[in-house]
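Researcher: Re-running this chain for the archive, since the previous output was lost when a drive failed. Same request as before.
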Amino acid sequence: MFDWLRKLFGGTTPSKPAAKAVEQRVQSVSNQPLQQPNPAPAQPRPVTTPPPARPATIKPTPETHAEEAQAYLRRLHAKVDALAERFARGGINRKQFEELFAHYQGEIQSIEQFMAMNPDSEQWKNLVSEGQSIIIRRKHAAHLVGVAIYDQRSGLPIRTVGEFGVDPALFVPMLYAYQSATKEIFGAAVRSTQIEGGKWLAFIPGQLSTTLALFSTEPSQEQIKTMENIHRVFETANINQLKIVPVDAEALVCPHEYYVGRSF
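Model: Regenerated structure tokens:
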């Protein structure tokens, strides 16, 4: 070390105090620890929110056969209530109501009697006739067979559509009776009546003409209201022709034709 110092300072021997001071300085430097570079600051980890726990699925307790039967019976009773309300609104005719009511009641009684004897059996399902009510409703729905339109001034038919089956002129006396509101025949508010063969005849009056609608069976009140709307459209569309006497039947448009042969 001293040799290196002598070379550094020109080969002369330094004084003892100076040499000692230098040596202490060298030792002080050599004893100092090496400074490490400052580490980069740690990046914060993203906080992830765990997904919410799914609620435990509660499996419903399976119904017993008796409970299933009781639930089905409640639905049948609800159908009976809805049937009565629909008839009150005029949505179905009397025959449809009677046949559907008998169908529901028969099914209710059959299931109740079976479950009373076999409370643990599922064979009650064999007594259920799904879709039968739709068949009954369609079977007993009234279809429009034909219409005859009469001039109120002359009382004579001016247009006939569909299969009326008889000469519309034969209904002229009945038409006069209706127009005079004879209670002995039609009552205070009756607007349809049964004729031969189980068919029904509905009277739809307008301002200048009257429509006689022939149905396959008793029409519902909704069907009669539909015929009222059709007749109003008929008179509106043909107002100019209907004012001319005699009426030119060939010049008339007849919206009734769309409904002939249909249940609506």
